[in-house]
Every structure is written in C-alpha cells, then in structure tokens.
Amino acid sequence: MTRRLSSRAASRVYRVVQRATARRLPAHYAEEMRTTFDAMADEAAARGFAPIAALLLRESLDLLNARRPPSSPLAPSPPRQPAARLRDAWRAVRVRQAVRALVRRPGFTATAVLALAAGTAATTTVFTLVDTVVIKPLPYPHADRLVAIQEASPATRERVSLIAPIRLEDWQRMSRAFAAVSGSYTEALTDTSGAAPERLDGRRVGPRYFTVFGTDPIAGRTFTPAEEQFGGPAAAVISEGFWTRRFARASSAIGTSLTFGGRAYSIVGVMPATFAASIDVWLPAQFAPGMLQVRDARFLTGVGRLKPGITLAAAHDDLDRVQRELAVTYPKTDDGWSAQVWDLKAYRIGEQSGLWLVFAAVGLLWLIAMTNVAGLVLVETHRRARELAIRLAIGASRAHVVGIVAQEVLLIALAGAALGVLGASWLVALAKSTLATLPRLAELGLDSRAAIFAAATGFVAAVLCGVIPALAATRRRPASLVASGGRVVRGGAHRWQRGLVAAQVALSLLLSASATLLLRSYYNLTHVDAGFSTDGVITFHVGARWDEDRPRVGQLQAAILEGVGRMPGVEAAGLVSFLPDPHATLRYRVKIAGLAGPDGSGTLQAGQRTISVGYLRALQVQLVAGEWCPPLDPDLNGRRYAMVNRQFADRFGAGMNLVGHEMRYVEVQGPMDSALTITGVIGDLAEDGPEAARTPFVYACEPGGTWPDPNYVVRTSDAASFVANLSSVIHQIDPSRAVFAVRPLEDVIHDTVEAPRMSAAMVGAFAGGALLLAAVGLYGLFTLIVSESRREIGVRLALGAQPDHVVRLILADAGRLLAIGVAIGLALAFAARDALARVLFRVAPLDPVTFVAAIGVLAAVAVTAVALPAIRASRVAPTEALAAD
C-alpha cells in the first residue's frame, strides 16, 4: 500500500511539473512521457522511498532545463506575462552552474543544508507523531462509526468504566442506532503449553466483538457463535506479534493449542498488528447463564458500531431511551442509569494537548531555522551584490537574477529535505522504542504522508530562504549597486536581515520560556507529597484468571504473601486492586447509616481500592485515626472491614469520628452489598495522579481471592536480591504461575507523568536549538555589519574614538535589536498563555520570574554572539580601513 501511494504521489507531482514547463509539447509526446514516468515510478517505488525521490528529482530537473523551440524572427513576440518571464528566467539558469556555485562556497552550502535538514527532520518526526496519534483514523473499516460506550452514574452522570454483560445484550436487542455492540475485559494469562510458563496479555471478548471492528484476520478466522456461548469449544485468536514471536509466522500455528488454567484453547485465527498492539491473545468470555442475570455485575468495557448516518448525539439519545425502558422493567438496578457515547478514537487517545504543544514548538524551531538560512542567503547576496549588479547592468532581467539565487536555494532545500527524511526515519524509530505510553504506537512509521509533508516544508523553505531574500537584495538600481560594490554601511540596508534576527530572538524567547515553565511544572508534579513512600518498594503480578475458583485463588495469594514475607530484607508485603494511576479508579456511591453526608442525600461518591493491610504498611501510609484492618478470615462471607482516607472523613463526617461506623455501597448487589465496618482513617494518597485534587477513597480490606489479579506490593531493603529470587519463590509455591511486571513502584508513579516529562524534555531541546540558531543569526548579522562598516569604523578611530566606544556602539545596536525581539516574544507568549495553561501544574503561564530568567539567558547568548565581531571591529587599523576603500 505504501509503495502504491508513493508511486501515485510521484506521478501526480511529475504531471504538475510537466504542465507548468512543457505546455507546448504535442499531446502524444506528453502522454508518452507520462506513461514512461509511471512505469519507472512503479519500479523505483518497489525499491523504497529514496529511489523514487531521486527519479522524481532527476526527471523534474530535465523538464525544467528543457527549452522551447525558438520562434520565427519575423513573427512578432507576444507580450510576456510576469509568470512566463520568471519561468523563462528559471530555465535560463543551468542546474550544473548552480551546483558549481554552491561547491565554490562549501561553508555556506553545508551550513544551510544542515540547518534545513535538522528542521525537516524535527518537523517531519513530530508531524508523524501527531498524524499517527491524532489525525489519522483508526485502522478499521469505517472507523468514524466506531464508538466507546459506558454506563453513567445515576446521581452524577459521570462515566464509569464497566458495564454488566446482560445490559450489553439489552442494548444490542433494543437499540436502533447500533449495528452491533460488544464488550471485553483484559486478563493476564499464563500459557503452560510450552517448556516454561509464559505470561500473555489477554482479552476476554463478548459476542460480536470482532464484528464491531470489522477487521478480517490475516490468517484463519475469528470466533463462531457457538464458541462465544457458555460451554462452547475453547478457541483462541492470537495477535500478529505473538504469531511472529512464538510460531515464526508459520501457517501451522492455526490449530495449535495454548493451555490456560489446564484447559487447551485451539488457535483459530491471527489478527493484524494494527488491530490491538498490546494484546497477545483473545479468548471468548462465554458468560455463564447466572452471570447474565446479574444486572449490576459491571466489568466490561463497551464498544459499538453505529449504523450509517447515525451521529454520536443520536446514539446517546437512543441508549437513553433504552435505559428508560429498562428502568421500568428493572427499577431496582436500572432506574436513573444512563449511558455515554464517545468517538472511539478520541476515547482511546485521550487528551493530547502536550503533543500539540511539542508540534507547535518544533514548528517554531523550524521557522527559526528558516529565518537563519534566509539570513545566510541575504549575507551571500550582499557579498555577491557586484556580480548580480553587473548581470542586471548588462541586460539580465531581475527575474533572471532572482532565478539564479532561487535555483541554488532549491538545490539546498532538496538536499536538506532528503537528509531530513533520513534523520526523521531514525528519530521515528527512536520515538517508537522510547515513547512506550504513546497511543497507537504500533502504527507509527514514516509513510507517503510524511514524505509529502517533508517535500512541502522543503518547498516553503526554498521560497522563504531563496526567492524572498533574492527579491530583497535586488531592489536597488544596478548603477548604485555597481558603484557601492555591495557595501552598505548603515541605515535600512539590513532591514530584512534585522527583521529575521528579531524574529529568531522572539521565537527563541517564547521557546525558552515555555521550556522553563514546563520544566518547573514537571518538577512540581514530581515533588508533590503523594502521601506514601516509594523507596525500596517493588510491585509485580502473578498470573491468575477471573474464572478460577476464588477460594483456591485466595489460598494462592495468602501463600505468596507468606512466602515473599520470609525473603531476606522484606519489611512488608500486601496486595491492591489498582496502583495509583489517573485512569485506574473504580468509583461508587456509599452511605453511612444515620449520616446525611455533605449534600444531605446521605451518600457520597468515593474511589475504591481492594487491599490487604500489608499494602498500606508497605507504602508507609500515615494512620490518622483508629486501627489498621484486622487479620482477615479467608471466608468470603465473613465480616467485612474498610479504611477511609482523610478526605472521606472530613466530607462525610464533618469532623465526626467515623471509626466503628458501618458503610454500604449504594445500588450494588451480591457480596458487595454487605456492610463494611470502618476500622481506621489514613492520610490522603495521590491515587489519581499528582496533579489531581485529593478525593474521598474507600480501602476495602477484603479476603484473599476477592480480586484475582491484584498488584503485589513489597517493601524491601535489598531490592536487587528480591527481584533476583522472586521467580524461584513463586515457582516453589505454584510452578504453573508466571511472574511478570516486576518494577519499582517509583517507575510506575513516574509513568503517570510521562507525557509532561516528554513535553518538557522535547520543548527544552528545541529551546536549546533555538538559542543556538539565534546566536548564529546574531553573529552572522553583526559580522556582516562590521565587515561592511570598516570604513566608518576606521574614520571614527582616526578621529579619536576609543576601541571600547566602538564595542559599546555595536553592543548598543545589538541591544536595540534584542529589545525588539523580546517585545515581540512577550506578545507571542501572551497570545499563547491559554494553551500553556492547559499543560502546566502549579505555575502561571506568564510567570514573571521565568520570563526574566529567559530574557537573561537570551541576553547572555546575544552578548556572547555579538562580542567577537564587536571586539574585531575595535581592533580595525584606521589607515588599513581607509586604504581598503
């Protein structure tokens, strides 16, 4: 597909160039040329991007260099339009001459090519990230009709992450807006079919799951209706990544069995890598008939496919209608409940303002690079002023002279774009290996869209850096240019270059201040008092299934905690349903008998964690009141206990001691419907991420097996030894269990602020590049000014001016330019304040200390860049300067 797109894109570009340069060709010649190019393009595309780019460049240059047949000398010449005159001037310049001119100036050529290559590489890389994550549709047929569906809380209408299987079946049966709905849940699986247990990322899926997405397997098939029913055949669909890793893509994998919990699942199909990058195997959920009668057993994430022409709003209204009808039939469990519908892509990628911020930052860096190259071109045109003036004086048109400069810069832009694409390919590969939390990571890669973007930026660069500076340099009359020899002393001669440098200063200030703000924001995020300690804390998982016998799983968990607790250096060990994370909280409404609650309704919404008491001790959580959970009876029907955080006690109890009160979850059935006795109050933990406000939380001290697949949390004084010996300890307890996700808790917490860290690091790198480019621009400008002002400086020194006076004069000139750039940069920062405010934490987007520091850094860079030309100017010998003139 990529090769075909590249070939088509090249053919379209060739046709545009042909129409612009060879309109008088006979129609059959033009058609033959296009047919020949299409054949060569198909062949080149099969070899990759570089051959087809070289082919397009070569053939386009041939068209540009082709001359029209001379007209009869007796025929009157028709009036020439400006565009035609510029085209003729372009053709009059030979590519070989442009290449030789660039070779004669290796310093200028290398600097310009590298600057453009760096800008193209950075912009193409970040464009690829934004295009893959945000712009491109999901890789499914008619992806615009895919939605995420969730239930909504009856009191707050906030979304919840889980849906009951029976409710999904009701929605499928009663809705009019959906072609199909389904649900799924993740499950850590342990495959024991090989020589050693292997942990796999699994997903249990309900009926119609693959129908919703509409993606065909690359081998085999998906589940049949019989396999999706309770008691049906045990089947498995595997991912392309797992198929490659385990079976080397052999077709014989179809029909092979994987063993989970002692049951053999026959592999029936393979899904493509883009279907779901993080999943190894899909299994049918096969809901038991009893489960399909429990309307509040919410554990599925819902997806749906809309019928053609149905909008999100219409789908939401349709599910609201269905829920109202269900509320009449099932008032106890469905009354007041609703549903929410989101576009699936928006739901999956979440908030990506940080990525857009990085894209804006790299765009600013690209503009700085372009202005720098334009400044270099202006310097070169000033140095070549006598040559260009002579060309104008002997009859060359202004368009012809502009074409000379523009063609040279076009070659530079093409070389920079080619190098930039190579650099972008390396940067994209680096991003794919390092940005593990980026959504849609499996789809990331350079494609024809990125190549077109690189080509477009290269064309814009050629215009900005070639045509505009050339037009500015040829505005004066030829006679004055020849008389001055290209020397311009003061005044407005360098308006263009001064404007470019001022723009560089402004953009550098904006980037530097933004990077500093992001770094301060990230520092604030990582230094929030989370309410717990991560030093020496290790987390891990042990494979267990939700459909296993719960008492048996409880015995396994108790044995693991006991075995781990005997390891050397272990101070505390426990388990928890979810570690602190912004996207891993179940929320319930709870009530305490006899209390009205904060709003008088008698209820309060609170986050919930299922824990063992060792979890809180492993995190060294502060006990505010009461006692820790008592030792628990493994009997799941025994008395239940819970602890609450300070926010819960303050909001619900309003200063009352809640220890000893009984609490219940509202509108739930089954084991969760029984009362929990509050045994103690703990400090507030940053459960929803460091930037989120602390909210009420309930920590249910449940018996083992209540949560089959928990996070084990261990505090140890010897982390290295613990990690090295953990697998052998678990293997002694149960050799069929896989141990996985062994990580320091500190790393887990840092992952929750990965996006701010990435934004701060990337914008900081771009800011450093911007400062360097601004310094180069200032140095180049004042080197040119000093070079062209040697006569004036010599006169000043001959009349008695001191060298330090000359230095101050040049620094003052630079200071005025810096002040203009700073003023523009502050205006840009003011305009961007709202965008910055959305990604900052505990720091104002117009923080004065940050901007004063950024201006100070920028001033120091500017003084350093201008100091050398200024000192060189102060050492000019008056007699030498006057004699040279």
What can you see in these coordinates?
Strand 6 (257-260) and strand 7 (263-271) form a beta hairpin. The protein is globular. With 885 residues, it is of the alpha+beta class. The two termini are 64 Å apart.
Roughly what percent helix?
40-55%
Mean pLDDT: 81
Number of strands: 21
Oligomer: single chain
**Overall outline:** globular
Spans where pLDDT lies below 50 across 5 or more residues: 67-78, 485-493
Determine the N-to-C terminus distance. 64 Å
Relative strand content: 5-15%
Number of helices: 30
- In this structure, how is the largest beta sheet organized? 10 strands, mixed
Radius of gyration: 35 Å
Structural class: alpha+beta
Observed structural traits:
single chain; alpha+beta; globular; ten-stranded mixed beta sheet; 30 helices; six-stranded mixed barrel; 885 residues
Summarize the structure.
The chain is α+β, with helices and mostly antiparallel strands and 885 residues long.
